[in-house]
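All the exercises in this workshop are built on plain-text protein records. The record below serves as our worked example for the rest of this section.
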Amino acid sequence: MERLIQGHKRFLAEIFPTRKGEFRLLADRQAPEWLFITCSDSRIVPDLVLGAGPGDLFISRCIGNVVPVENGNEMDGVTATIEYAVEVLHVKHVILCGHSDCGALKAALDRKNLENLPKARRWLQHVEAAFSHRQPLNPADGESAELASLIRGNVVAQLHNLKEQPSVARALLEDRLSVHGWYYDILTGHIEQYDEHQRKFLPLPG
C-alpha cells in the first residue's frame, strides 16, 4: 500500500498542480469519444498504450474482454456500461481489445484450472464462441501461436456480441457509431486491428 500512497503524494505535488485547469473542466462532466472494452489483466494500461489522458477513454474491464449476449432481464456491468456509453455519453467509437497471454483464454483451453472458481467458470461460457472464430496460426507468435489464435478469435466473437447489443445496433444503423476489434501484443507493444472485409487481423494503420 505504501507504494500507492507515495504515488498519490507525487501526483498531488507534481502532476495535479500543472493540470488543475484540465481537471476543473472535467469535474462536472465528461465527454469521451471512445468506449474501450478490454481485459482486467494488470499488464494492459490503455491510457499508457494509447497516449490518452483524463476524460478521453470510457473504460469497461472484465476477464476475457467479454461482452455477454443479451439475455432477457439478466443484467451485468459490461452491457450496462455499453448502454450508458452509447446512449448517454454518445461515444463515437467502441474498441474491443484482447491481448496476448490472456489468462481467461488459457483457462478456456484448460478447464481443470477452474474447478475452484465457479463464477469465473460460468463467466467464461461467454468465450465459447472463440473456438469457432479461431484465426490462422501466426509464426511470429512462436510457442503461443495456438493461444494467440484463440485470443484473436475471441475478439471476433465478442465483436459479434457487441453488435447485438440493442444500443449498439441502433447507433450503427443510424451511422453514429463505429466498432473496432483490436489485439494488443504485450511483448512488442504493437496493436493489430480486425479487418471485417478481409476477415483477418492487420497492423494498426498509421
About this structure: The longest strand covers residues 93-99. The CA atoms of residues 19 and 151 lie 38 Å apart. The chain has eight helices and six strands.
